[in-house]
Amino acid sequence: PNMAAEPEGNFVLGISSKLSPEMVREKLSELFERYRKFVSSNPDITSQLESSFRVVSYFIAGRFQNSSELAELVYSASNLIVLLNDGILRKAAKLKTAVSLSQKRIMTLLTVLEYVEVFAEIGAARLWGELGRWVVIAAIQLVKVALRALLLFKYKAGIVRTPPISPLDREADLPDAFLKSCKDKKSEEALEMEDLDQVFVRKAEEQGRLPQVTFMGTRSGRKVRSLTATPPISLRDWKLPGTKPDPDKKKKTTSYLEYQNLPPTPLGGVRLVGEALHVFRPLVYLSSLAACGRSSWKPWLLSFLTDVSSLALMGDNKDLNLLEKAELKRRSLMLLFYILRSPFYDTYAQAKIILFLRLLASTVPGIGLVIEPLIGYLPTWQQTYFYNWGT
Questions:
Q1: Residues 87 and 94: beta-carbon distance below 8 Å
Q2: Considering only CA atoms, which of 169, 232, 247 is closest in space to residue 196?
Q3: How many CA atoms lie within 13 A of 103 on its CB side?
Q4: Rounded to the nearest 5 degrees, what angle is found at the Cα of 58, between the Cα atoms of 53 and 63?
Q5: For residue 10, what pLDDT band results from cuts at 50, 70 and 90?
């Protein structure tokens, strides 16, 4: 019997089930272009979506069995999305960077590794067991050390921050002209009007009504806008009619991007040795851990002495720029993590920390909703290398 001709393909969302690789790439390029245009035109909405996505990861952690993998996947994805969106906005706003393209690629790769390392460790442990986990940890740290060494010795990048590429402060970093261009036509017209309430006063006069722009509350004495002078919701700025904009408030704070583009402080002599100790500290710890075992105090002591020596060799930081000072301060605070690192944590800190958290949960009303999941998640956090040793 004659068979009906097989259809060439089913269409789902306008995409055929039989597409050549070239057509698939074209469709993906078209989708990415639409996404790029949305992000470039709506930085405020994009920021809200990113924040919501990150909050989900905090809510998931410790709430149910195997929640750590899902929480870390969501958190890593949210960070990567922020990095991608920042890149789109930097390009759309034509923001300049003070580093070469090759150095920027190294910094981007380092930032991506910083964002996915915890999920990679947890996933490797799930798929390949403890041995696979440590192989992935060693591989990631070797790549990170090699990239940081390149930045330090080849590109003279000085003190490299963690992560090397910080998220954009979109209010301060993006130019005013770019932010204005992102508004729709109605919002743009509203920004150009110096005194929007006068438009509604004229309309009230045309309709033969007595325009009352504001009224004052009899008890509170507070002046508020009347309904007759209320513009459409898309044009509202939530200010009293006739209020002159404060020129000081229009001034942006110093852009974080301006600090990022400052030239690095040249490192030489003992400072270069100090930064090199910080760069190679993960390999010092991992090699001593492989030689002495996890129960030995030698890896813990060697790592602690390496970090303290690195900070001590940096000396007085008066000549460093603001971001370099902030990075050294962060490293100093990270010394507190040695309390949470084995074997010190197992021997001295674990029982005291859990007792304190339980006491806090039982005495402060409502805080138990946060503390109990934290206590349940603490063993997973403490046993994950990149949570407390990867910084």
A1: no
A2: 232
A3: 15
A4: 120
A5: very low
* 54-85 pLDDT tens trace: 888 877 765 666 777 888 899 999 999 999 99
Tens of pLDDT, residues 172-189 = 777 776 776 776 544 554
Average pLDDT over every residue of 372-388:
88
3-state secondary structure the chain: CCCCCCCCCCEECCEECCCCHHHHHHHHHHHHHHHHHHHHHCHHHHHHHHHHHHHHHHHHCCCCCCHHHHHHHHHHHHHHHHHHHHHHHHHHCCCCCCCCHHHHHHHHHHHHHHHHHHHHHHHHHHHHHHHHHHHHHHHHHHHHHHHHHHHHHHCCCCCCCCCCCCCCCHHHHCCHHHHHHCCCHHHHHHHHCCCCHHHHHHHHHHCCCCCCCEEECCCCCCEEECHHHCCCHHHCCCCCCCCCCCHHHHCCCCCHHHHHCCCCCCCCCHHHHHHHHHHHHHHHHHHHHHHHCCCCCHHHHHHHHHHHHHHHHHCCCCCCCHHHHHHHHHHHHHHHHHHHCCCHHHHHHHHHHHHHHHHHHHHCCCCHHHHHHHHHHHHHHHHCHHHHCCC
Give residue-wise pLDDT tens across range 222-231: 777 666 555 5
| pLDDT tops 90 at residue 343 | yes
Sort 76 into a burial class: Cβ within 10 Å, 0-12 / 13-18 / 19+. buried
The owner of tokens 């909703």 is 369
Q: Which residues does 92 contact at the CB level (< 8 Å), separation at least 6?
A: 36, 39, 40, 178
Q: Which long-range contacts (CB under 8 A, 24 or more apart) does 228-233 make?
A: 228/200, 228/204, 229/197, 229/200, 229/201, 229/204, 230/200, 231/190, 231/196, 231/197, 231/199, 231/200, 232/186
* Residue 197: φ, ψ to 5°: -65, -25
- Residue 52's Cβ-side half-sphere holds a number of Cα atoms within 13 Å equal to 6
pLDDT digits (tens, 9 = 90+) for 252-284: 455 566 767 788 999 989 999 999 999 999 999
């906005």: which residue's tokens?
Answer: 89
